[in-house]
Amino acid sequence: MLKKIAFAFALASLFCRFTWAESIQKLGFIDTSRVYQQSIQAQSIQKQLDQEFSARQKKLQIMQNEGLKLKEAIESGKVPVNEREAKIKQMLEMDQRYKEAAAKLAEDYNLRRNEEFASLQQNANKVIIELARKEGYDLIIQDAIFVNSKFDITDAVIKALNAQKP
Q1: Which among 24, 29, 97, 157 could disulfide-bond with 147, CB atoms 3.0 to 4.6 Å apart, if both were Cys?
Q2: Using alpha carbons only, what angle is made at residue 120 by residues 115 and 126, rounded to the nearest 5 degrees?
């Protein structure tokens, strides 16, 4: 009796899956990473972030160069023996400050990037919903492992995003 109930349940769930799949008439897929790389808004965000963080990146580069020069001087033997220990200590302190500054820069950059791209994602989602309603899509998927290219509507989404006024 239990086997009959399990079989009936399995058959019913299989039928429901076929019915659900048959009800989807139009399917679309969006490659979010392409939207984030190719849309005008994404490129504008990237330029803005590069400008915002360029001064700190330059300072970090200068710190790194100074540390490398000090290391080269120590390794080359140009530093007198009586100053060697102090220079090694100075190099280690510079290295520590560099690592801390680099970590802080990366954290701040990622935080700002995530804030900006969250706004872009909200805007993209509005465009996607509008496109889905206008074009009659039943289902739109983002970020899948594999999708046949005939379902890819990423270019249409990028085009619609780029058509928006800033």
Answers
A1: 29
A2: 135
Q: Strand, coil or helix: what is 2?
A: helix
pLDDT tens digits, residue range 7-28?
Answer: 455 545 655 554 545 566 888 9
Lookup result for tokens 């379902």? 151
Residue 141: phi, psi to the nearest 5? -115, 140
Concatenated DSSP letters for 129-163?
HHHHHHHT-SEEEES-S---GGGB-HHHHHHHHHH
Q: Give the chain's end-to-end CA distance (angstroms, integer).
A: 66
On the 0-12 / 13-18 / 19+ scale of CB atoms within 10 A, 9 is exposed
Give residue for tokens 């220990």: 85
Taking Cα atoms as reference points, which of 36, 42, 92, 35 lies closest to residue 67? 92
Question: Cα–Cα distance between 60 and 15 in angstroms, integer?
Answer: 62
Place of tokens 């935080």: 111
Sign of CA dihedral 96, 101, 104, 105: negative
Q: What is the pLDDT of residues 51-67, one digit of tens each?
A: 999 999 999 999 999 99
